[in-house]
Amino acid sequence: MNSLVDQIVLFGDSITQFSFNPDLHGWGAYIADAYQRKFDVMNRGFSGYNTDWALPILRQLLPTTEDQKKSTNRIRLITIFFGANDASLPFAYQHVPITRYTENLSEMFNMIQNPNSKFYNPDAKIILITQPPVNEVQWKKRCDDNGDRMNRTAEVAKAYAEAAREIAGQHQVPVCDLWTELMQIAGLEAVNGKEEGVEVTSKTCYAEEKDYKRDLSEFLLDGLHLNSNGNKLLAQVLLKTIDAYYPELSAEAVDLHLPIWRDVPQTNYEESLQYKTSN
């Protein structure tokens, strides 16, 4: 099939791979629904992967500058969502030291943003998604059930989320801050500079007021991966992040491909049924 529609690419680990799971009301499916007949939403999630392994994959996924000239579509937005596996403890197979983790994220950004990169793509906007917090009670149960050592902690997850935010800021990449959203919902993180544990009266995030004072287990399937509530929250926060930083890519701002059926002429309709491609 010819690809005539511009793309949103979801690039990440298992939380991205599972984002189209109907049983979990996956966040990627929410995004695809919001952009029906506007953009093709491409799931490029790789369960268990870290940023070391993601780099050679991204080099294959991104079109070169020469390929872009010949393509009938463009990548309009790419989400980069790694960290949950990088932040596993040093004895774990998936662990990537935090310094190399941020270097890898920086290299991903530069592949798209740097005019000297063979993958330079000024049309492709980037959003970094921070990993969710680890709910140690849930995750320990999963590890125990599988006969594994406890291989992730809340403290390390926080450090990697902070490092991801910092490197994104250096590259002027907007952040969809899932870690902070969930921590503020649970009342475990300061809000607008206030101390932890205080009643939430104002917020820096996008969650609805009704979502506050809820336990992390209400949003996490196993202490790390998202359940239906977590997927719905991430979809909402990502759409609002797009609205805030890339309003031209807002689902409401992007035109439908092809006319609504009532507007199709009864005769001589072929011209009105032509896709408008990027090139």
UniProtKB/TrEMBL annotation:
<dbReference type="InterPro" id="IPR045136">
    <property type="entry name" value="Iah1-like"/>
</dbReference>
<protein>
    <recommendedName>
        <fullName>SGNH hydrolase-type esterase domain-containing protein</fullName>
    </recommendedName>
</protein>
<dbReference type="Pfam" id="PF13472">
    <property type="entry name" value="Lipase_GDSL_2"/>
</dbReference>
<feature type="domain" description="SGNH hydrolase-type esterase">
    <location>
        <begin position="10"/>
        <end position="232"/>
    </location>
</feature>
<dbReference type="InterPro" id="IPR013830">
    <property type="entry name" value="SGNH_hydro"/>
</dbReference>
<dbReference type="InterPro" id="IPR036514">
    <property type="entry name" value="SGNH_hydro_sf"/>
</dbReference>
